[in-house]
Amino acid sequence: MSHRTAADIPLLVRSENSSSERRVSPSWSVAHFKTRLEPIIGVPAAFQRLSLGSAVQEQTLEVADPDAVTVESWGLRPYTEIYVQDTRPASARVNFNDLSSVKKYEMPATEYESRSDSVLAWKKAQKLGRFDPDAPSVEEQKIRALQREVSERNIEVGKRCHLLPATDGRRGVVSFVGEVTQIPGLGTWVGITLDEPTGKNDGSIGGERYFDSKKNCGVFVRPDRIEVGDFPVLNDFAEEMEEI
Predict the structure, then answer these.
(1) What is the pTM of this model?
(2) Sheet holding 48-53: strands in order across?
(3) In the structure, what pLDDT confidence band is assigned to residue 75 with cuts at 50, 70 and 90?
């Protein structure tokens, strides 16, 4: 005898690990309905507790004799949501959302590099990234990045500036833009003549002079450490007079 009729109704079936739409025959017994759910939600029929809505606001659909009572007795409307709770002890349940214990295949690097149908092989064929013979080296990329900083920040000799971050508070004039071989690190440095003797030099390093400043009024920083603009010399004495 078939369990399906023309009056099948669509239901939304949810559990801890699954959610799907299922067509159900009202003529099915509750026991048969649970048996049909088992391969879908992964919970054995004997450990399923059915309710309307969710486990938080439970309106039970459990019956005393699931073999004798049909789904039709619930009076379900199309797209009613049924929540299936797993009543097994937590240690006996399978968490299909936890992939930490699932063994994963990792292809050896040598095998991957030898394949002709991989992204790596495509990059090699297209000469992209590190496979581009004309691509700049890491050092060249850094030098170009610093040069872009100078251009984008409009850093030029003679312009007023202040040091970043803003909490630094020091101001001065851009006195040099270029490479400084005495300082470790490739690329552009910016030499600043500070308004006050809070620097580290007088514009020279290791006997090589890059600009002139008073003692301890010179400092070299990377382009991203300064901002040029209308930053006049701070007159602390004038401020003190205003407070008297």
Answers:
(1) 0.47
(2) 19-24, 9-14, 80-86, 48-53, 58-60
(3) confident
